[in-house]
Write a structure and sequence with these properties.
heterodimer; A: about 400 residues; alpha+beta; Serine Threonine Protein Phosphatase 5, Tetratricopeptide repeat; two-stranded antiparallel ribbon; about 45% helix; B: about 210 residues; alpha/beta; six-stranded mixed sheet
Chain lengths: ~400, ~210
Amino acid sequence: MRVKRPDLNYLMRIIHSFIIALAVSLLVAGCATTERTPPQRLTGNPAVDTPTLLTNGPSRDKVLWQYRTAATAMQRGQFDEARQLLDDAILTISGIIGKDAEGRKARGYFSPEARKTFIGEPYERVMAYYYRGILYWMDGEPDNARACFRSALFEDSDTLDKKYAADYVLLDYLDGLASVKLSGDGSDALKRAQSAVRISMPGSYNRNANLLVFVDFGRGPTKHAAGRHGEHLMFQEHPCKIRGAQLQIAGKTYQVRAYDDLNYQATTRGGRVMDHILANKATFKDATGIAGDAAIVSGVVLAHNRDTQPIALGAIGLGIISKIASASTRADADTRSWDNLPLYLSFAHLDVPAGEQAVTIDFLDEGNHVITGLTKKMTINVPPNGADKVVYVSDKSTTPQNL
Amino acid sequence: MHQRIGLLSVAVSAALLSGCASTGVKNPSGVPVTEMKADERGFVAGTGVESQDLVAVTDKMARGILAVPQVANSTTEARVVLDPVVNETRFPINKDIFLTRIRTQLNSKSAGKVRFLARERMATLQNERELKRSGQVTSAADPNVVEFKGADYFLTGKLQGMSTRTTAGVSDYVLYSFQLIDARTSDIIWEDAAEIKKQGLEDAAYR
C-alpha cells in the first residue's frame, strides 16, 4: 500500500501565514494605553533616589515612595516632611474603597498584580498610621494620635484566622495611654495589649510620664514571589541581632524592650483575596499553555494527511492563540515592598525633669550587651508644663539630633 | 484552499488585534474641577468624616442650641466658650472645625442671642491689655477695669466611633454628640447627637 506523503510546501505556507499574523499582532501590541515613565538615573543613595522617584516615578508607586521617604525623614528627624508624605499616603489608603480602574486591570489575566496602585500589605499600612500617630503626639494631639493607632489596628483586623486580628501589642497599649493622658479610661486597651503579648509584657501606665520614646530597630520583611509563575507572595525575613535598647537620661538608665515584630505580623495574615485571583491566573496560564501544545502537536499530526489538512490548520491556529494567551497571562504577585521598615517596635514612657536633657540610646543584643557603632545621642527639651515630649529613634537614625 | 488560509489568517490577526483597544480606562483625559456643595456627597468618598457630615451635624446642632429655652427666652445674651471636641474615633480629624462651624452658624442666625468668647486669643488679649495699662498704647476706656467676660455656657462635643472590617467590607459608624453646659451649675442644659454610618468595599486587588 502506498502511503501518501504530506505536502510540506502547503504546511510551510500555513506556518508562514501564522508567523505573519503573530508578528503583526506583536507589533501593534504597543497600542494599549500604558503609563510610560522614563528610566530614572539613580545614585544608589536612598536619601537622594527616593525623592527623585517620588517625583518622577510611576504614579502607581507614589505611595510606596512616600512610605520610604517618610521613614527616612523620620530617621533624620525631618518630621515636617514625614508628616506631609504620610498624610498624602493615608489619603490614598483610606480613599481606595469602591471601584478602582487600576485594581480591575490588576485582576485581569494579562496584567500583573503590580499594575495596581500601591498601598501596601496591611503591615505596611499599619506602619504608615503608626508613624503618623507618633507625629500627631509630637504635635500635642494625643487624640488624633490615638485615632491613628486605632486605624492602624483596623488595618490588621480582617485576618483569615481571627486569632491574629488586630494583635499589635504596642498599638493597643498606646491607645490606652492616649486615653489615660486625655483623662479617659485606658484599662480595656491595656488588657488587650497584655493579652496579645508575644515578646515583652508592657507595664501599667505612668500617668506622670512626660517623655514618650518610640524606638524601632532591625530590618523589616520584604516581599518576593514564589511558585511556577511567581503567583505566591512570600516574605523575606532579615536577621537582626538587636533585641532591645537602653536609654540614659538625667543620670538614670532605662531598658526598652520590643513589643511587636513585623515579620510575625506580615506572615500571620492568612491568604488574601488576590491570592485566589493569582492562583486562577496561574491555572489559566498552565491550561492555555498545555492546550496550545496539544493543539499544535495534533495539528502537525493531522497535517500529514491531505484530507485532514484543513482541520490541522484550525488546530495549529488555535494552538498558537492558546500559547499566546498563556505567554501573555501575568500571574506574578506584587512584590513592591516598603523596604526600610524596622523589624521590632518598642516604646517607653518616662517621668523626667523638665528642661534640656541629654539622651543616649544604645542598642542591645540577645545577651543584653551594647552593640557598638549604633549609639544615638540626642538633646531634647522637655516642656515645663507637664506636656508630653515625644521622641522617635531608630537604629538607623542620624546622630546627634536636637529635638 | 489559499482563500481559506487567507481568511483564517485575517481572523486570527483580528482576534489578536482586538486586545489593543484601550478599554476600561476611566476618565483618560482626567476630570475637570467640579465645584460641589459642602453638603453634597462627591464622587470621591471614603467611610471617614467628610464635609457633608460636618455640615449636616453642625446645622442640626446649631438649630438645637437656638431652640434651648435658656437661650431662646433669655433677655440677655448667652455667653458661650468653646471647649475642644474630643475625638475618640479612628479618624484623625481637625476637631476645631466642628465648633467653628457651629459658632459661625449661631453667630449668623441667633440674632445676637448668643455671644462667643475668644478664649483661644486670651494670651494676645491680655498682652494688649497690659500694653494699655502701661500706657504704651492708647485706650478708649479705663484699662484697669476688668472687662473680659465670663462664660455662661460651655459648648463641647465628642466624636465616638465603631468600626468593623470583614471580607464583606468596611463599616464605620460615628456618633457626634454635643453638649451645652451651664458654667455656674455644671448642668447639661442641652445635648443632641447625630449618627452616621458608612460602608464600603475595596476592589479585590487590595484585599
